Amino acid sequence: MSIPEIAAFVATALVPIMPYIGKAGEEIAKKFGNEVWDKGKALYQAIKKKFQSDDKSKQTLKLFEEDPETFKTAIEKILIQKLSEDGDFQADVQKLVEQIQKSEKSIQQLAVGNYIAQASDHSTATVQINESKKQ
């Protein structure tokens, strides 16, 4: 996985759990599954720890916690920078991402654009486009 792919996966994976991250995990774990919740929370904690090193990152993470959809792209950009600068951080995050991907339940897939198909775990996806002819 490339650094931009890791950053995109992390931001997308964290969006649905951010509203619950500060609350008791028991009820949330029921919604997402214990394994997925634990790994998602571990991923968030690793990022939070890394983002404490500078004010801009810390502030952006705070905004992401409050409104994950709006600040998702900003988190991705900072993650790309931090992952590129720190090989150990990249290895740790990539390991957590791989663990989440191997979990029984997936967190989320997101595709934006035209004519998109997504597939995972040895499955296939196709897009068939039938455009009517204008005369």
What does this structure look like?
By secondary structure, the chain is mainly α. It has one domain (3-102). 62% of the residues lie in helices and 0% in strands. The chain contains six helices and no strands. Helix 1 (3-14) crosses helix 6, helix 3 (34-51) packs antiparallel against helix 6 and helix 4 runs antiparallel to helix 5. It starts with a helix and ends in a 33-residue tail after the last helix.
Features:
single chain; 135 residues; 6 helices; mainly alpha
SSE topology:
Blueprint: H1 3-14, H2 25-32, H3 34-51, H4 55-66, H5 68-85, H6 87-102
Largest sheet properties: none
SS content category: mainly alpha
Pick out the low-confidence regions.
none
How much of the residues is beta strand, in percent?
A: under 5%
Straight-line distance between termini: 46 Å
Tell me the number of helical segments per DSSP (H or I, 4 or more residues long).
6
* Helix share, percent: 55-70%
Quaternary structure of the protein: single chain
Report mean pLDDT, rounded to a whole number: 79
Shape: globular
**SSE string, helix = H, strand = E?**
HHHHHH
Rg computed from alpha carbons, rounded to a whole number of angstroms: 17 Å
Kindly state the number of beta strands. 0
Quick summary:
This protein has 135 residues and is mostly helical. The chain contains six helices and no strands.
